[in-house]
Input
Amino acid sequence: MAKTAKTTSAQPETIWNYLYGKIGNAYGVAGLMGNLYAESALKSCNLQNSYEKSLGYTDDTYTDAVDNGTYTKFASDSAGYGLAQWTYSTRKKNLKAYADSKNASIGNLTMQLEFLMKELSESYNSVLGTLCTATTVLEASNAVLTKFEKPADQGSSVQAARAKYGQTYYDKYASESTTNASSGSSSSSSSSSGSSSTTATKTATDKAQSYLKSLAGTYKVTTTSNNLNVRNGAGTSKSILVTIPKGTSVKNYGYYTTASGVKWLYIQFTISGVTYTGFASSTYLAKQ
Output
């Protein structure tokens, strides 16, 4: 069976939706994403730039060589790779093993997001705890910087830069997550009471988690035509990866991207023994 394909472009909204569904705190998600952006520009196929010349690979050719087995030093070459720029041999070995267990490309976004949460929950639970409870982007960002990523330079300028990246994602997606979590009703009202604000935040978080969990599940293609186009991004302008017939069952794990007011679910499915992932309009998907 062919591996689930690598993801060749950055998909920030997909990453936000997935992480928000797991963490449920916009400050924590933003702080984590700011660090991931600093490490990899949110590209799951990213090979550390300083190693491209010495290893003789680009992002794509390195990923392909690891996937097809022609390059066997993935765990030991000390080159940062992927969303979090995993570098240490044990962590890269675990990443490769997880990819293999999912029959996925080492550069597949879904697999890397799952592995990221696996690491956080199993080996960095104090960081995950901070992400779930942080009350500022900077607090969350510094926890990831100093306890998870641990680059050589963790100075104040680096802290400020990563928090700034995170704030950009917070400003762009936090209000949308709250609106989505409330099923279309705004929850932006504020209170001068600290306890009331905390309660409101918890309520919004609970609703967000419930909403995203409600999306996850198995769907059936219900297009009025014979086939449904699955694309490499949200929107009809994105390239078609594959076309699947009406009645096909697909899976969604609770994340999506909105384009032109339409919700595009990030789905996974298998046809003729080949597993695919991509985006499809929710208009033509019925939950089973």
